[in-house]
Amino acid sequence: MRSFFALSVVLALGVAGCGGAAAPPPEAPKPADSAGADAGAKKPSAEDDKAAKSAALEALVDGESKKGTCDDAHKAALEKLLADAEANMSKSGLQLVAKRVVALGSAAKSIELTVTGKGTEVHVLAYGVRDVSLDVLVGTAAATTLRSPFQRSATSGPLAVDLPKAGTVELQTDSRQVTIKPGQPIVAKVSGQGCAALVSFLKP
Predict the structure, then answer these.
(1) From CA 84, how far away is CA 99, in angstroms rounded?
(2) Interval 71-79 mean pLDDT
(3) Quick check: is 20 in a domain?
(4) Domain assignment present for 59
(5) What is the maximum alpha-carbon separation in the chain?
(6) pLDDT, tens digit, 9 for 90 and up, residues 79-101
(7) Which residues, other chains included, contact 127 with Cβ-Cβ below 8 Å and sequence gap of 6+?
(8) Is residue 81 part of a domain?
(9) What CATH number is attached to the domain comprising 93?
(10) Domain of residue 190, residue span
(11) What pTM does this model have?
(12) What is the rounded CA–CA span in Å between residue 4 and residue 8?
């Protein structure tokens, strides 16, 4: 009898253990902290940004030189610069002879400029982002190597253009001041890479 009672207690405890509360499910993994991940991501440095803009300018200039045409945004930026130079120089009493934007490449580009008026002193200015240089011919010979005093002061602001991918780019510049007979045509010979701006003024 005593043995039967002990067996009954053991069986009862076993049944109670099997019918108890279920074990809690395993805890789901917590999602990664996106803010922490973003904070840990490497941000572009000033050097990276400068390198990217330099590469963009390189690609722009190479493309213009090979195609022989100016990028639309680059051309518009240089035309804006020329308009500013014209307005600023007119305040000093100088008369516009010609202004234009040209694509330069491996060979120099010759541009004939017709000078009207009684003045004999002409200032020719060239601006570009890469290796710009200028010679001015009167007849078949280089007129002079004298640079214009307006080379860096023709515009009202800095000699720079803003380009979509390359950012603000400082322009290189060259110039000549020549003396001609009234009405005598001259030839500007411009060298460089990529798009460049040419402008000339006559001092009455």
Answers:
(1) 11
(2) 98
(3) no
(4) no
(5) 143
(6) 999 999 999 999 999 999 999 99
(7) 78, 81, 159, 171, 172, 173, 196, 197, 198
(8) yes
(9) 2.60.120
(10) 70-203
(11) 0.77
(12) 6
